[in-house]
Structure to design on (465 residues):
């Protein structure tokens, strides 16, 4: 590949097919992630029979470790060199491993007690590590398919839209599939196992589509020095914008996962209608997917921080509406609140990925080193840590509210569960606005950095050449 072609690939637009294939990266992970984030806790309580205290320990240990190994994976990916590039190999080889480990996580062990808890903890940790491998690589891939910030925003939009299709499938089909394979029993081990096998196969196929349909063209600047692992971590965590992004993500993701992790309990025990979950999940996915199409348009006209602030406020209002829907047993209110909370939440995540790309460019301008995966993995670190905190505390807070597995809850317990599931996440959305608003990156600075890097870049041979 000659220098002129490389420059065209970096500065110009990718084809629709390339964008679409890249979009399958997040879809591949979402088949596993949606099951784990939405159903693993209730699988542990209602199928395996673990107590909330044991689940809390498993979730906390597993997710904290998951958060820690994200930056480690980022460093490894940034240092990888292969004929396929830095990130694509992890999609090819990591996908089937993720599928197998997710199936094992949803397999009821043939023994209980401490052995059963250890089995659950080990399989959950390993599946989380596999998701980290494919997730970090897939997210970083957008930054090396093009150097144009607006094209990256388009790629991120495609990834979000295709991802939500996967979420739509899991949200709409999971409970009906569990009931089908479990012969009407929502707590059937066979129902969970058969369902997750189907999603594991679909997820692997999605990752492989992304691998074969993309090509890395942006390489580190010629002559860039190798950075030790410790220095790579210092480079990321030491950047003020990254730290503020990390804190905002942590709080915001505590809100997102604080609801997703216990959302099933809302339909099983608060409104006592599990089939409403499929309807709400479908609305949730549509609300997360459709508005994302407007992100490239919005980010051209408004500062990303301004958009994120407005979206977090609207999402918090949605959480309040969800609470009222649970109080009044109103499906229309639940659907409106679901659309607002999760739709706005998804848009915040999509917009923020564009902000990450601009921060990476700024770091390269200032330091001469490019570390796409490590910065994205640091962001993912806060996502996973938020998941750890929310996942471990969510089921405990439900227990504090009076929740008892496989039993009818009294009115006071239902109100307490409703507050934990809906009002607490809404409050966290509002708190997250503070650190996000303190990030100094803006359109003018991003454009200046892009121009500097375009003039500095000397070309590379690219992957697969």
């Amino acid at each position: 590949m000659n220098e002129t072609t490389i420059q065209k690939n970096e500065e110009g637009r990718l084809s629709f097919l390339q964008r679409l294939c890249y979009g399958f990266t997040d879809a591949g992970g979402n088949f596993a992630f949606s099951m784990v984030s939405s159903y693993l806790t209730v699988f542990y309580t209602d199928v395996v029979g673990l107590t909330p205290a044991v689940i809390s320990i498993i979730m906390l240990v597993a997710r904290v470790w998951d958060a820690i190994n994200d930056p480690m994976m980022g460093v490894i990916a940034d240092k990888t060199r292969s004929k396929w590039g830095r990130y694509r190999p992890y999609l090819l080889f990591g996908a089937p491993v993720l599928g197998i480990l997710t199936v094992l996580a949803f397999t009821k062990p043939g023994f209980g007690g401490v052995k059963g808890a250890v089995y659950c903890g080990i399989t959950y940790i390993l599946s989380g590590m596999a998701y980290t491998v494919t997730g970090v690589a897939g997210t970083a891939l957008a930054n090396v398919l093009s150097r144009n910030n607006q094209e990256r925003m388009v790629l991120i939009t495609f990834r979000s839209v295709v991802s939500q299709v996967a979420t739509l499938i899991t949200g709409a089909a999971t409970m009906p599939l569990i009931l089908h394979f479990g012969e009407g029993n929502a707590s059937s081990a066979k129902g969970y196992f058969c369902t997750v096998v189907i999603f594991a196969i679909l997820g692997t196929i999605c990752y492989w589509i992304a691998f074969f349909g993309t090509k890395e063209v942006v390489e580190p600047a010629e002559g860039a020095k190798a950075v030790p692992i410790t220095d790579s971590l210092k480079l990321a965590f030491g950047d003020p914008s990254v730290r503020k992004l990390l804190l905002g993500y942590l709080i915001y993701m505590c809100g997102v996962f604080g609801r997703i992790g216990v959302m099933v309990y809302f339909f099983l025990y608060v409104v006592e209608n599990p089939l409403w979950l499929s309807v709400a999940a479908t609305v949730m996915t549509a609300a997360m997917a459709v508005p994302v199409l407007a992100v490239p348009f919005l980010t051209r006209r408004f500062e990303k921080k301004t958009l994120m602030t407005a979206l977090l406020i609207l999402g918090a209002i949605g959480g309040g509406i969800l609470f009222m829907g649970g109080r009044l047993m109103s499906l229309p209110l639940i659907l409106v609140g679901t659309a607002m909370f999760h739709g706005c939440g998804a848009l915040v995540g999509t917009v923020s990925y564009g902000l990450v790309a601009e921060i990476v460019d700024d770091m390269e301008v200032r330091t001469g080193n490019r570390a796409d995966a490590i910065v994205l993995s640091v962001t993912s670190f806060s996502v996973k840590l938020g998941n750890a905190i929310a996942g471990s505390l969510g089921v405990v807070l439900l227990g504090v509210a009076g929740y008892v597995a496989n039993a009818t809850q009294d009115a006071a317990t239902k109100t307490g569960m409703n507050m934990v599931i809906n009002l607490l996440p809404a409050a966290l959305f509002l708190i997250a606005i503070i650190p996000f608003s303190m990030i100094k990156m803006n359109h003018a600075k991003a454009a200046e950095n892009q121009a500097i890097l375009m003039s500095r870049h000397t070309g590379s041979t690219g992957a697969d050449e």
